[in-house]
Design brief:
CATH superfamily of the largest domain: Periplasmic binding protein-like II
Largest sheet: 5 strands, mixed
CATH class of the largest domain: Alpha Beta
Number of strands: 13
CATH topology of the largest domain: D-Maltodextrin-Binding Protein, domain 2
Strand order of the largest sheet: 2-1-3-10-4
Radius of gyration: 20 Å
Distance between the termini: 47 Å
Shape: globular
Number of helices: 10
């Protein structure tokens, strides 16, 4: 097997976290399929996305979270790569025609992590403290809990955001715990926020693997990697997102969990960007009803909120 002609080509962003996740998928493929065990059988192709290139504006202002996947999906569609590895929270609500995500690795911790040198937890921050985050979901929930805080947009990888915290540009920031675990940086966390305090993004902590729908060879390679309990949870959360016509322009949070008895519980929340108005929903059902459960939750939230809730202007403050 020549490295110029690998059996599989994985498309990924070039961030440290994205590369760790792509290597996780590569290692699983090599361990699961003997014909892929050769070091050059599975290659990783780094693809620069618009979301990585444009860092001086929030994602909501420049078009949404799909900006982290578009160029990779283009490479998948035209055959330059055979599969794409994504953080599912960055994947747009609807996939391009001809592409599918039906393989999910086991979900890592979905909770958000709080960082600060000035307080032991989010609720202990002094009034007027500055919290840096480019996520409207995090912004809305922070302001819902603490309307006396100031939230400003910051972007960048883990080290960049924590450097802005260390330099005093912000007093606190928030990141996904899952990414920190994969990078081996959990020792830097000040507080892991419980879902009761900060509900996660849809599919946060999940690695999804995208492929061409009409590619049975790749589908066969990926089938043994799929973690079905995670797939069920993602189905509920993303059905909710689709029902709400969701993007990163609307603060939407959700977490589906399977209990020991096999009951699926879905918690969901929509909040205005300023945190002043929110609507929550909690419902349970069987795993077989995951998508229907998400759609029902979305319909209930939309009915409570009214159409104007989703037409609020998107903040476009300069990124620090």
């Amino acid at each position: 097997m020549s490295s110029d002609h690998p059996l599989l080509r994985i498309g990924t962003r070039g961030s440290a976290l994205a590369l760790v996740q792509a290597e996780m998928v590569r290692a699983l493929l090599m361990a699961t399929h003997p014909e892929l065990a050769s070091p050059d059988a599975v290659a990783i192709s780094i693809i620069r996305t618009t979301g990585d290139a444009v860092t001086d504006r929030t994602l909501a202002a420049i078009g949404g979270k799909g900006l982290f996947t578009k160029e990779i999906e283009d490479a998948l569609i035209d055959g330059r790569v055979d599969l794409a590895v994504h953080s599912m929270k960055d994947v747009a609500t609807w996939l391009p025609d001809g592409l599918v995500i039906d393989c999910f690795l086991e979900r890592e911790d979905p909770r958000d992590a709080f960082f600060s040198d000035q307080a032991a937890d989010l609720l202990s921050l002094r009034p007027g403290a500055v919290v840096g985050t480019a996520s409207l979901r995090r912004q809305a929930q922070v302001l819902r809990l603490r309307p006396d805080l100031s939230v400003v947009p910051i972007r960048g990888n883990v080290d960049t955001r924590l450097a802005k915290l260390a330099s005093g540009q912000v007093d606190a920031t928030l990141l996904a715990t899952a990414g920190l675990k994969r990078l081996g940086q959990t020792d830097r966390i000040t507080q892991i926020l419980p879902p009761e305090l900060m509900l996660p993004a849809v599919a946060q902590g999940v690695i999804g693997i995208e492929r061409r729908a009409a590619d049975p060879r790749v589908e066969a390679y990926l089938r043994p990697l799929n973690h079905q309990p995670t797939a069920i949870r993602v189905a509920a959360e993303r059905a909710l997102l689709a029902s709400l016509d969701g993007s990163c322009k609307t603060p939407i949070a959700a977490l589906a969990e399977l209990d020991a008895a096999g009951v699926l519980r879905l918690r969901s929340l929509i909040v205005t960007p300023d945190g002043t108005v929110g609507h929550a929903d909690v419902r349970s059902g069987s795993p077989a009803e995951a998508a229907a459960l998400g759609r029902a939750a979305g319909a209930a939230l939309r009915a409570r909120a009214g159409s104007g809730f989703f037409d609020l202007p998107v903040p476009d403050a300069p990124v620090r």
